[in-house]
Amino acid sequence: MLVLGLETSCDETAAAVVTRDADGTPRIVSSVVLGQMREHEKFGGVVPEIAARAHLKNLDPVVELALEKAGIALGDIDAIAATAGPGLIGGLLVGVMEAKGICAALGKPFLAINHLEGHALTARLTNNVAFPYLLLLVSGGHTQILCVRGLGNYERWATTIDDALGEAFDKTAKLLSLGFPGGPAVEKAATGGNAERFNLPLPMRGQKTLNFSFSGLKTAVRQEAARNQPLDPETISDLCAAFQSVGTSSVCDRAARSMALFEASEASDTQKIFVAAGGVAANKAIRSGLTGLCAERGWQFVAPPLELCGDNAAMIAWAGLERFELGQTSSLDFQARPRWPLDSQVEAVIGGGRKGAKA
Ligand code: KG4
Ligand code: ZN
Predict the structure, then answer these.
(1) What Rg do the C-alpha atoms of the chain give, in angstroms?
(2) What's this model's pTM, rounded to 2 decimal places?
(3) Which of 121, 187, 280 to mutate to test the pocket of ligand 1 (most atoms within 8 A of CB)?
(4) 349 or 293: which leads in pLDDT
(5) Of 186, 183, 310, whose CA–CA distance to 239 is shortest?
(6) Collapsing DSSP states into helix, strand and coil, what is residue 353?
């Protein structure tokens, strides 16, 4: 079975083909990701209207390239999956309309996929991880811990009450004039920096809640930057190192609490797997913090390879394949959704991530 996936919910235009080999192993047949960094760079962030126009211009050639790399024609595809939310509505419409158009023309099944589900299931694509597992979904729009119990069965255990961690990385980079996107720039600048020089506050220190908060940390970085003007490269490096270190501690602290909760509530023979996904999961300091924590507690740590942490279409195609295997498809009437929580049972948290945000 071959599933074509399309991703256009933010600033990456992507198409991919995935399959499951005869022995059941998931496989990415081809994956193409075209970023829009240059289009948005001078604005210091993603401009929705520009993003939508770029998707419109680039999606056809990106799909053609993905098919060419896979060595197949559109007719060989068994189903088409597209990100239908959450995200920027202009981009979502481009991807959803393209998928629906092809499906209608060729009589193929259509699958409307939740972008967050794509991130949530990536570890099953890359590492064939079985359910259940704990998931840290950490990106530009979301910072959540979820218990993934099955396909479509996601319990949100924690979320940010203000900024997402990726957003805090991006704002820190902007403040220190490190460019866009900020995460990789802050990580690079932090290399060799002295994290001890600045005493930035650990968010929600001592609080029992599993939730995250990063706006105080962001403010503390702004105050230190103001106090140390003009900023020399060493100060920038030290500030980035301090920010990254506190961000890592916060993530590890919440991860440890969620593991304890999982251990207390699940049967003792339940597998203990902690998965990280989303753009910020590419951060090496965070990965190594979580690797150490999992080793200490006897958990298995799984994080996708760097290129599958950020937005891509392989994860969308894969979520589509998993749903299609269970006989699920979506109606061609399915409307794109700018907001689409993974766990509809929990209440939204006011300020829980960027407005209109995705992961
Ligand atoms: O999942 P993702 O690709 O898409 C959206 O959230 O839209 O995540 C993007 C986020 C951005 O905030 C970016 O700065 C952050 O992930 N990011 C990183 C790194 N690479 C990307 N943050 C920290 N360290 C990185 N290496
Ligand atoms: Zn994402």
Answers:
(1) 20
(2) 0.94
(3) 280
(4) 293
(5) 186
(6) coil
Structure tokens at 43: 């604005």
Cα separation of 313 and 316, whole Å? 5
User: Separation of 6 CA from ligand 2 center, angstroms?
Assistant: 13
pLDDT average, residue stretch 242-271 = 97
What is the tens place of the pLDDT at every residue in 170-193? Answer: 999 999 999 888 999 999 999 999
Q: Which two tokens mark 283?
A: 């951060």
End-to-end CA distance of the chain: 28
DSSP secondary-structure letter at 292?
Answer: H
CA angle (83, 284, 262) in 5-degree steps = 70
Pocket test for ligand 1, best of 46, 83, 139 (most atoms within 8 A of CB): 139
Per the CB < 8 A criterion, the answer to whether 59 and 95 are in contact is yes
Rounded to 5°, the CA angle 245-288-286 comes to 45
Q: If you search the block for the tokens 């940010």, which residue do you land on?
A: 160
Quick check: 124 pLDDT over 80? Answer: yes
Tokens of 203: 């968010």
Q: Which helix (H) or strand (E) holds 16?
A: strand 12-20
